[in-house]
Design a protein that fits this description.
Helix content is 28%, strand content 21%. By secondary structure, it is α/β, with parallel strands linked by helices. Strands 8, 9, 10, 11, 12, 15 and 16 form a 7-stranded mixed sheet that branches. The longest helix has 20 residues, at 67-86. The radius of gyration is 20 Å and the shape is globular. The mean pLDDT is 96. Bound molecules: flavin-adenine dinucleotide. Flavin-adenine dinucleotide binds next to helix 1, strand 3, strand 16 and helix 9. Flavin-adenine dinucleotide is lined by residues 9-15, 32-35, 40-42, 44-49, 127-128, 140-142, 165-167, 169-170, 173, 209-210, 300-301, 322-323, 335-338, 340.
Length: 354
């Protein structure tokens, strides 16, 4: 029995894109969403959908990712961004603020609304647990960062100390669903994207996930709580947050000298980021002319997950996109929104067939 042409699990970036693409093709689509609102982590994000300017830099920065999947993101992103704009998703900037990358910045609420109104039937507060009929399914449940046991198993023994910098509903449901149906794990299951945040007693609410991020490790001396040092290797600081997550209590200390305070990082200075830590309630010490900020790793999305082929297929009748998929930015960092956009459309196209 088939009541729909396509069933989608998750009304975040990947799921809404897949559903909107399928609906545009004239298919009947139902989207099951576990949370009480559409948008998932996309709605909390900065909304920058980007790619490396050159495919070679993507390969160099994410050396263990699947070359074919990376090429698809690189080649299709610009036309997929034009498609998003054609749906009325509001663009707030035509540059990413990073000379190494190109892309667009969207207003996340407007992006969610533009996609949701084209996504077919949306059922909020309804996790997909079993397939309601024999229609193909696109899994877009947003990764497994919300499940402490999976984070402990695959990422760090310090899982209980990590802060969740994401929607609360992405707990690996897509992963479990697909593995039970013959799906396989990608490489890099221990990798994740996140940001270091001010450590408790600071409190960081979801609307502060962006503004409270402490993104100046490369202008600081970084140590763990035992005093062991770490040298930052990447502009995205993905290596720092992954290192921090594996240190005692998933914490680090950033010592920032006076002369680094005025350094700009994106749209803010180091001093402004330290001020945001203080506003969140962090203890910021001022010692010998330098500031010391204690940070804790915040996990945003897992980067490992399900293995897909270039048609976004996981197993018979099962497709996946977004952070449920691994193997794209393995070894580094690339835009999760971009991968969700590109593979959301590919997943819908493959699931519906020619
Ligand atoms: C603060 C912040 C800033 C960010 N900034 C950027 C940025 O500027 N650029 C960028 O590229 N990326 C950014 N990201 C990451 C980006 O948001 C994610 O990579 C992207 O949203 C992943 O898309 P997704 O569809 O996999 O997950 P989501 O958008 O999180 O959607 C997953 C959805 O699945 C739902 N779900 C979970 N389980 C089930 C189930 N069993 N059944 C049904 N539904 C389920 C969830 O409730 C959620 O709505 C940011 C994230 C955050 C939190």
């Amino acid at each position: 029995m088939r009541s729909y042409d396509l069933v989608v699990a998750g009304a975040g970036m990947g799921g809404l894109v897949a559903a909107a693409h399928a609906a545009e093709r004239g298919a009947s689509v139902v989207v099951w969403e576990k949370g009480d609102r559409p948008g998932g982590s996309m709605a909390l994000s900065s909304g920058v959908i980007w790619r490396h300017r050159e495919l070679e830099s993507f390969r160099a920065e994410c050396p263990h990712g699947h070359p074919g999947l990376q090429r698809l993101v690189h080649e299709r992103l610009d036309s997929d961004l034009a498609w998003l704009e054609s749906l009325g998703a509001p663009v707030v900037a035509r540059a990413t603020g990073n000379p190494e990358t190109s892309g667009l910045r969207f207003d996340p609420s407007g992006l969610t609304r533009a996609l949701a109104r084209r996504a077919g039937e949306l059922r909020l507060g309804r996790p997909l647990e079993a397939l309601p009929d024999d229609a193909p399914v696109v899994l877009a449940t947003g990764g497994f960062q919300g499940d402490r046991a999976l984070v402990r198993q695959f990422i760090t023994p310090e899982a209980d100390s990590l802060l969740l910098r994401a929607n609360p509903w992405s707990t690996g449901d897509g992963l479990r669903f697909a593995l039970e149906r013959g799906g396989a794990l990608s490489g890099g299951v221990g990798e994740f994207y996140g940001r270091n945040l001010p450590a408790p007693p600071a409190r960081v609410a979801p609307e502060q996930f962006v503004s409270a991020s402490q993104l100046y490790a490369r202008h600081a001396t970084v140590t763990n709580l035992r005093g062991d040092p770490y040298e930052t290797r990447t502009w995205s600081e993905i290596d720092v947050v992954q290192w921090t997550a594996r240190q005692p209590s998933a914490r680090a200390r950033y010592l920032v000298r006076q002369e680094a305070l005025a350094t700009p990082v994106g749209e803010r200075t180091v001093a402004e980021m330290i001020a945001s830590a203080r506003e969140a309630g962090a203890q910021v010490e001022h010692r010998d002319g330098a500031f010391v900020v204690e940070v804790v790793a915040g996990i945003t999305t897992t980067l490992g997950g399900l293995r897909i082929d270039e048609q976004a297929r996981v197993a018979d009748g099962v497709y996946a996109c977004g952070a449920d998929v691994g193997g794209i930015s393995t070894g580094g960092y690339s835009s999760g929104l971009a991968a969700a956009l590109v593979f959301g459309r590919i997943a819908a196209e493959s699931a519906l067939g020619p």
